[in-house]
Design goal:
UGlyAH_Cupin_dom, 6% helix, eight-stranded antiparallel sheet, 51% strand, globular, Jelly Rolls, 8 strands, mainly beta
């Protein structure tokens, strides 16, 4: 499983970061259990991230293909994932997703 992925020579670094099996203390430090939940059945989904998202997958498996790239990042249950702001991608979900998620606050001035 890849830990990070970025397209070589891309003008902006829109790489997805995957932290595999983070510790319980890391999860409670982030307050993940209080984050909203989201899920989806298997299928392909076109998504655009207008804000950075951090998510923790409770179950499921997905390959994420950044727009304009043939490479993908794969992650699943037990992974803590950070998706950068501005990323457009296709989620190819092979097992139903159930995740906690949180968007970064846009309070940067």
């Amino acid at each position: 499983m890849a830990t990070t992925s970025s397209t070589p020579g891309s003008s902006s670094d829109l790489s997805i970061t995957v932290e595999s099996k983070p510790s319980e203390s890391r999860l409670s430090e982030l307050g993940i259990k209080s984050w909203p939940k989201w899920g989806c059945p298997p299928g392909k989904y076109l998504l655009k991230f207008d804000a950075e998202e951090m998510c923790y997958l409770l179950k499921g498996k997905v390959k994420v293909y950044p727009k304009g790239s043939s490479e993908f990042v794969e992650f699943g249950a037990g992974d803590l994932v950070t998706i950068p702001q501005g990323l457009s991608c296709t989620w190819d979900v092979s097992a139903p997703i159930d995740k906690h998620y949180k968007f970064a606050s846009s309070s940067s001035s």
